[in-house]
Amino acid sequence: MLSRLRDNIVTIIETVDLIHTFGDGTKALKKVNLTFKEGEFTVITGANGSGKTTLLKHFNGLLFPASGKVLVCGRSVAEKPMSARQNVGMVFQDADSQIVGETVYDDVAFGPENLRLDRSEIDRRVGLALGDVDLSGFEEKSPHNLSGGEKRRLAIAGVLAMNPRVLVMDEPFSNLDFAATRMVLKQVLKLHQNGHTIIITTHDLEKVLFHAERLVVMDKGEVVDDGRPATVIENIGRYGVRPPCSVLFERGLQPWEI
């Protein structure tokens, strides 16, 4: 799997000395330099307030740098935000915040309709996106009557209907039970196998780390480690992130002893 990290793979997202400052003067990101290759499956972790979500919002122009730059497909996000949003689709932690339609069909169709596509193309994209997340047959259901896991998958479908090259997900397993977590993870892995670049933020590594090719650790707005998960996980506890149970079992330790 790590063959995807070869130098000849196309760079799809790059941050160069990225700094973001909140209105009160707090530096949320401090000279972040990261490169994401096309087809990678990356997990970004860190304690609450480490800058994970703030970083993601720069990838599709929801936020812009105070200094430094973010490039998507070689183009500056600050200069070409619409291009970034076409290439990078983001699924937020709160799936309800992304629901805009009265029916599942309407919700997924919202993005393509705003692209002014013809109805046949919209129908095609909606059908494909719902099929990708196992929600075919849900078209006429109300999104607000779906389960938490189904809402998360609907949010993914809404992003997929825009045909992005990169799928960015902020804490995708938050507030989901075991069954819903398995279903969402299944869809994410399917999308990765089909060629999508996947970037996930989470502080709960247990559910997804086994499938990742790369682990990035953030602490107080900085990247403090970056590499193969098996290597990076060795020091994860010092940054306020609980190691997966497998690591604890191997060492015979309690979580507070890492």
Automatic annotation (TrEMBL):
CC terms in the record's Gene Ontology section: ATP-binding cassette (ABC) transporter complex
Keywords, alphabetical: ATP-binding, Cell membrane, Membrane, Nucleotide-binding, Translocase, Transport
Keyword flag DNA-binding: no
Main localization (coarse): membrane
SMART domains per UniProt: AAA
One Pfam family recorded for the sequence: ABC_tran
ABC transporter domain mapped to chain residues: 13-245
Domain of life, source organism: Bacteria
Location of the protein in the cell: Cell membrane
Gene3D superfamilies: P-loop containing nucleotide triphosphate hydrolases
Gene Ontology molecular-function annotations: ATP binding; ATP hydrolysis activity; ATPase-coupled transmembrane transporter activity
Annotated PANTHER family: ENERGY-COUPLING FACTOR TRANSPORTER ATP-BINDING PROTEIN ECFA1, HEAVY METAL TRANSPORTER
Family classification: Belongs to the ABC transporter superfamily.
Protein name: Biotin transport system ATP-binding protein
